[in-house]
Amino acid sequence: PGGPPPPPPPPPLAHDDWSPTVPMALESAYKQKLGAEPAFTNWAQTRNSPPFVGTLDYVFVSEGCRAIDLLPLPTTMPREDGVAKGGSLKGALKRFYGGPFPTLEEPSDHFMVGATIELP
Fold this sequence. Notes:
two-stranded antiparallel sheet, about 25% strand, 1 helix, globular, about 120 residues, mainly beta
């Protein structure tokens, strides 16, 4: 959160006329309600590689929609010792937790994202 903007998408291949366009503006429900994206939604590591920690999962809403409730997600990045503060999360995510995931308590390396949305 608060870092540099993501890089633009790569240019299309010469034989591919597809373009990454969206006909309407979309907004992240988490950023709309909390003012920032979650610290991370994925914490994974494969053998002999460094861990990946980042936000990969989003709930997007269109204009006029309002996020009124969100599933809790981590609010800080993990420390060097593999612990992050996660607020009122359940299971392995309760208050403090260690990763990378999956673990016996948290069966996916992606945290569940979700929002209650008020429609216009």
